[in-house]
Every structure is written in structure tokens, then in C-alpha cells.
Amino acid sequence: MAKIDEHTHQDLIMKTGTLVEALPFMRRYSGKTILVKFGGHAMGEADYVSAFASDIALLDQVGARPVVVHGGGPQIGAMLDKLGIESNFVDGLRVTDEATISVVEMVLAGGINKALVAALASAGGRAVGVSGKDGGLITARKLSAKAKKTDSTTHDAIDLGFVGEPSEIDVTVLDALMEHHLIPVVAPVGSGTDGKTYNINADTAAGAIAAALNAKRMLMLTDVAGVLDKKGNLIPALTVSEAEALVCDGTVTGGMIPKIMTCVDAVRCGAEAAVIMDGRAPHALLVELFTEHGMGTMIKADEKLT
Ligand code: ADP
Ligand code: MG
């Protein structure tokens, strides 16, 4: 064996020290399901995707059971533009007609889903992409939304088209994959009992799947540091009731609303904690899970916050 100098020796001790410190965390997550939602905004650059994939592959390698649910709003918008299909939004929700839902399914379950599976393969992970349609994973029901009329304060029921919410989750397909050490990657599209295809907000889909799998942790990777207060400062920890209050008082708006409400539901359903964090920060996921340091905003049950 080649002799090593003192400097290299010290360097190696530091590196192995990191591994030794991670051991109790590895034990904690061994065999446990970790639901990771990868937001469309966080996957904007190839580097973010490959860093995310190597973190997930490592998580799998050390014995945790990662399940990935991905979004794709910006990518859907770009494809609709390319095809010359007009996008209309009501209160931040895309009005989804027949032409739009076919593009949504193509982008989510085709393009993005397979790109993530390929990135995981490059990182040494064995992943299988499914949509909510596979194995009856997500049965969707049409979302009935109320929109504010622009000219008055009254609320009218509006038809968003093929936008749905999960009405039933069947995790058989995910269990089967995980049993064979395959990492499931889920596109948030589901079938309705009417046989139609519905687009589901990826945060909502992730929450429903986390609950059905009894996930120990849920991590929401997005394009901001976490939940920000009115001054734009990161809030490191929130109880369920504090999180709800931020939605009520308008501090949290837009795409952060389904994210925070999904975390609240997950914690209420028994998850130890749910975290919203920046998916673009290098190895944010590993720092959060395998060190004493927290990343982003952690949402915990009211009585558990220390
Ligand atoms: P994703 O693709 O990850 O689902 P979204 O755009 O749907 O991303 O949701 C994240 C966005 O929510 C942020 O980029 C930010 O613009 C918005 N947002 C609204 N209120 C807040 C808040 N209080 N703290 C952080 N982000 C917020
Ligand atoms: Mg979103």
C-alpha cells in the first residue's frame, strides 16, 4: 500500500469523520420511506438535476427508501408556447382543456419523468418512472374551484377543465418497485373514474402519496430558500398552526400555498416533519437528512417544536 503524508492523512480523517457522524442518521432512515417532491422550478438547470439525482441515489444506497414526485409547471408552459397553445390562468391555476391536458401528460409523464429516471441511472440509482395512472396509483376527481370575479367580490364556480385532486391512492405499484430496490419516480397525472386524464398539483400528489406510504419524512424541493416572512427572511421552523396562520394573513401566496398546506396535512397524518427547501442548493437534501443542521423551513406538530 502506498505511504501517505501527514497532510493527506489529516484530510482523510476529516472525510471519514463526516461518514462516521452520518451513521446515526443513516440508521434513523434505514428502511424508512422519504418522500421527495422535486419542483418544476428547481429543475431548471441540468446541474440541479444531476446533483439532485446523486443525492437520491446516495439516500437509496444507504438503505432509505426514497420516492420522488416531480412537478413541471414551467416546462409545460414552455411546450404549450412552442405549440402555440394559449395558456389561461384563474387564481394561479391553469385552465386545462383537451389540447392542454394532452401536452401536460406528454411533458410530465414523458419528458420530465424519463429525464429524471435517466439522471438517476447516471448517478448509479435504479429508478422506474410511473404516472399516477400506473397500477391505479392516483384516482383523480375533478377540482371544483371558486374564482373571484374581476369586477366584483362575488365568487363563482369556475371550470378549470382537466385539473384534479387525488380521491384515492393505491400504493401497490410503489411497494412492488421498492421491494425490488427500484426508486419510484412519479408524474402527477391521474385517471378519473370517468376515464379522463387529470393534472394534479405535484405538491398535493406528493402529500397524498406520503400519507398513503406512511412516509417518515417529506421534503419539498423548490426555488426559494424556504418559507419567507413578510420581510423576505427565511423562517427556519414553523408549527402547524403558525404555518396555517401565514396562509391566512397572506404572507404565503401562489405556489407556496399548496406546498405549506401539504406539509401541514403530512404532519397531521403522522409524518415526523416536513421540510420546504431550496432544491438548487448543492446537496441540500443530504445536509437536511444526514447532519444536525436544518435546511429551509421545517414544519412540525404544535407540541413537538423545540
Ligand atoms: P414549485 O415548482 O417548486 O412547486 P412554485 O412556484 O409552485 O414552485 O412555488 C414556489 C413559489 O412560491 C416561490 O418561488 C415564491 O415565488 C412563491 N411564494 C409565495 N409566498 C411565499 C413565501 N411566503 N415564502 C416563499 N415563497 C413564496
Ligand atoms: Mg408548484
Describe this entry's structure for a reader.
- Strand 3 and strand 4 form a beta hairpin.
- By secondary structure, the chain is an alpha/beta fold.
- It is 41% helix and 24% strand.
- The radius of gyration is 20 Å and the shape is globular.
- The strands form four sheets. Strands 5-10-2-1-13-15-16-14 form an eight-stranded mixed β-sheet, with helices on both faces. The protein has a four-stranded mixed β-barrel with strand order 6-9-12-11. Strands 3-4 form a two-stranded antiparallel ribbon.
- Adenosine-5'-diphosphate (ADP) is lined by residues 39-42, 71, 73, 222-224, 227-228, 251-256.
Keywords:
306 residues; alpha/beta; eight-stranded mixed sheet; four-stranded mixed β-barrel; binds adenosine-5'-diphosphate; binds magnesium ion
In short:
Helix content is 41%, strand content 24%. It is an alpha/beta fold. The structure holds adenosine-5'-diphosphate (ADP) and magnesium ion.
Give the secondary structure arrangement, pairings included.
Elements: H1 6-29, E1 33-38, H2 46-61, E2 65-70, H3 73-82, E3 89-90, E4 93-94, H4 98-122, E5 127-131, E6 138-142, E7 145-148, E8 155-158, E9 163-169, H5 172-179, E10 183-187, E11 189-192, E12 197-200, H6 202-213, E13 217-222, E14 237-239, H7 240-248, H8 256-268, E15 273-278, H9 284-290, E16 297-300
Parallel strand pairs: 1-2, 1-13, 2-10, 5-10, 6-11, 9-12, 13-15, 14-16
Antiparallel strand pairs: 3-4, 6-9, 7-8, 11-12, 15-16
Helix pairs in contact: 2-4, 3-4, 6-8, 7-8
Count of helical stretches:
9
Low-confidence stretches: none
Mean pLDDT: 91
Number of strands: 16
The portion of residues assigned to helices is 40-55%
Overall structural class, as computed from helix and strand content, comes to alpha/beta
Provide the β-strand percentage band: 15-25%
